[in-house]
Design goal:
Elements: E1 5-10, E2 22-23, E3 27-29, E4 34-39, E5 45-53, H1 67-72, H2 85-90, E6 107-111, E7 119-125, E8 129-130, E9 139-141, E10 149-151, E11 154-156, E12 162-164, E13 173-177, E14 181-184, E15 189-192, E16 195-199, E17 206-210, E18 234-239, E19 244-246, E20 248-251, E21 253-261, E22 268-274, E23 277-279, E24 283-289, E25 294-300, E26 303-305, E27 309-313, E28 324-329, E29 332-333, E30 341-345, E31 363-364, E32 389-390, E33 410-418, E34 430-435, E35 440-444, E36 450-456, E37 459-466, E38 470-473, E39 477-481, E40 491-495, E41 502-504, E42 522-527, E43 536-542, E44 558-564, E45 570-574
Parallel strand pairs: 1-4, 2-5, 3-5, 4-7, 5-6, 7-9, 7-12, 8-13, 9-14, 12-15, 13-16, 14-17, 15-18, 17-20, 18-21, 19-22, 20-23, 21-24, 22-25, 23-26, 24-27, 25-28, 26-29, 27-30, 28-31, 30-32, 33-40
Antiparallel strand pairs: 10-11, 33-36, 34-35, 34-37, 37-39, 38-40, 41-42, 42-45, 43-44
């Protein structure tokens, strides 16, 4: 408790063993950054009784983690420089076969509401196992691992990127349960040289997104609404070997899903993509073979929305002959010719005679929906097309006249009340919705405090209210739309305490026996402290009837007093 980290693991990039601790009845209290940070091949077993809480069981208001802070906390593990240890580590080689890991882990780890903790990931993962999905607790790839092992005068720190199968790739499969969320910071990536086994489903996808994306597992970077996710917030998920990638959501990345290969001739990457969603990326799917090896990719039944380029084939390195053999069918490539690049193929090497079923053209994108019934726009081959654009070296005819997955829409509704859940409605609250394909949109609560967002697709959303002079409980709500409307997304508005306070003295006056006005009652309105330079404060006042009646005993009055920095802390109101 009361530290920057709870449990750290570190596995050398050449090691092929498995770190497999068991946790039971462990409480992480007031951990400033990550309660668990996994620096390499580590598959925890969570037994009952584990929890993550803030101070005294409540959420801690911790600052966001940074690589600089981690570096300042470098830990040197003693004993690794003893005689023989350096030679032993240098001699580590990939294992001949996979070691046994724990089976089907259970998520016996609970997080306090509105705390938004996370588990850090870094380094090399060189053996098989399954991560644990924990509701409300994403995995984060942020770099700056806070432990350095010193061995014979040389330091080893787990790499910022996560690499599956840095060694022992043929025997390494990292399995990921449905509903798992991964968040990344700038330029960081997950590289699969071994197998990335996604256990997701259509209704329970795995999400790869930005560290700033509060709509997925909450405000992980703990900055409220100060930052918003955007395209190119992070690097990519790179399939550097043959993999199957399905039932996933990839958003706010630079290259999204990158099918990548650097092998020589007669060595190929065979990868498939299906039932996935790519949105708000610079590139949804990128394909690159840098050497003489080939990529054979099948992309089906997926949705592309609001990427700068939906799918892009890249050129090989100079003098290299790597081919892209791509079949992309039954996908939705939403957009219009005015604003959306659909498929761009910059690989000039044509088809590969070495690959079965890879005839010209090498990039077959027939039977897709391009955002309009008229098909994709190509300046010479389909100039009448109003859908997303398509480049040369791509076959696109015939195309589909309607969407493969017509987007069903739902709504998020709620009410904002004053002071309590049964209070009167609070009008004029600006409610911000983040997530989905619409970016960021707002609504304003009506005279009875009700607000609504409609036309929303399935996905993760964050709802945040705001009104000057009020704080809200809760500050925001994470809402998951999964085939139905989200009703009852309610908030309570509470008047915020000001930076300064006003007070008014009491004045007693007796009714005069003459009809001639005798005097004024002078009320003194006071500030409790001086205003800072450049600051001001104001207060409105009005007279109300008590035993004295307006027009008979006093002249009704109302107004506004303004106080400026450097001026008197009191003002008089004469009645």
């Amino acid at each position: 408790h009361d530290s920057n980290f709870g449990i750290l693991t570190i596995a050398h990039e050449k090691a092929t063993g498995i770190i497999n601790p068991s946790l039971q009845n462990v409480t992480f209290t007031a951990i400033a950054t990550y309660p668990i940070y996994l620096g390499g091949t580590s598959y925890f077993t969570y037994l009952p009784g584990n929890q993550i809480v803030g101070n005294s069981g409540e959420a801690a208001a911790a600052p966001p983690f940074s690589a600089e802070e981690a570096a300042a906390e470098e830990l040197v593990a003693a004993g690794f420089d003893l005689p023989g240890n350096q030679m032993a580590l240098d001699s580590i080689q990939p294992g001949a076969e996979s070691l046994a890991a724990s089976a089907a882990p259970q998520a016996f780890l609970a997080a306090a509401p509105n705390f938004s903790p996370a588990i850090g990931l870094a380094g090399a993962w060189n053996n098989s196992g399954e991560l644990v999905q924990i509701d409300g607790v994403p995995y984060v790839i942020v770099g700056g691992f806070p432990m350095t092992v010193t061995i014979g005068g040389s330091n080893y720190t787990p790499a910022n990127n996560v690499t599956i199968g840095a060694v022992n790739a043929a025997n390494t499969t990292v399995s990921v349960p449905a509903k798992t969320i991964f968040k990344f910071t700038t330029n960081l990536m997950m590289i699969a040289k071994g197998k990335l086994n996604l256990l997701s489903t259509d209704t329970q996808p795995i999400i790869f997104t930005s560290f700033k994306d509060d709509s997925a597992a909450g405000d992980t970077n703990r900055d409220g609404t100060a930052t918003r996710p955007a395209k190119s917030d992070w690097g990519e998920v790179q399939l550097a070997s043959s993999n199957d990638f399905g039932n996933a959501v990839v958003r706010y990345a630079t290259k999204g899903l990158h099918i990548y290969f650097e092998g020589a001739v007669n060595l190929n990457n065979f990868s498939t993509v299906n039932h996935s969603t790519f949105m708000e990326n610079a590139t949804g799917i990128s394909l690159t073979t840098v050497d003489n090896g080939d990529i054979s990719a099948l992309i089906t039944d997926s949705t592309f929305s609001s990427n700068t380029v939906h799918i892009q084939g890249n050129a090989s390195n100079t003098g290299k002959t790597g081919h892209l053999c791509v079949e992309a069918h039954h996908n939705d490539l939403f957009g219009t010719k005015a604003s959306q690049n659909g498929i761009v193929n910059n690989n000039l090497n044509g088809f590969s005679p070495a690959l079965v079923d890879c005839a010209a053209p090498a990039f077959d994108a027939t039977s897709n929906y391009w955002g309009h019934a008229s098909g994709p726009y190509h300046p010479t081959l389909n100039s009448a097309g109003l859908g997303s654009t398509v480049s040369d070296r791509v076959a696109f005819d015939p195309w589909l006249g309607s969407a493969v997955f017509p987007p069903a829409t739902y709504s998020i509704n709620g009410r904002i009340t004053r002071d309590s859940a049964i209070g009167v409605g609070l009008p004029g609250v600006v409610v911000t919705l983040q997530g989905g394909t619409a970016g960021e949109v707002t609504a304003i609560s009506d005279v009875n405090g009700y607000y609504s967002f409609s036309g929303l697709a399935n996905g993760n959303y964050l709802v945040s209210p705001g009104l000057q002079g009020y704080t809200f409980v809760p500050p925001s709500l994470s809402v998951v739309l999964a085939g139905s409307d989200a009703l009852g997304s309610n908030f309570i508005g509470i008047i915020s305490p000001g930076d300064v306070a006003f007070s008014v003295n009491s004045v007693t006056a007796f009714r005069p026996f003459s009809t001639t006005r005798k005097t004024y009652c002078a009320f003194t309105v006071s500030l409790n402290k001086a205003l800072a330079t450049g600051k001001s404060a104001s207060v409105e006042f009005t007279t109300l009837a008590g035993t004295a009646q307006p027009g008979v005993d006093f002249v009704a009055r109302s107004g506004k007093l303004n106080f400026l920095a450097g001026q008197s802390l009191t003002q008089l109101v004469n009645v």
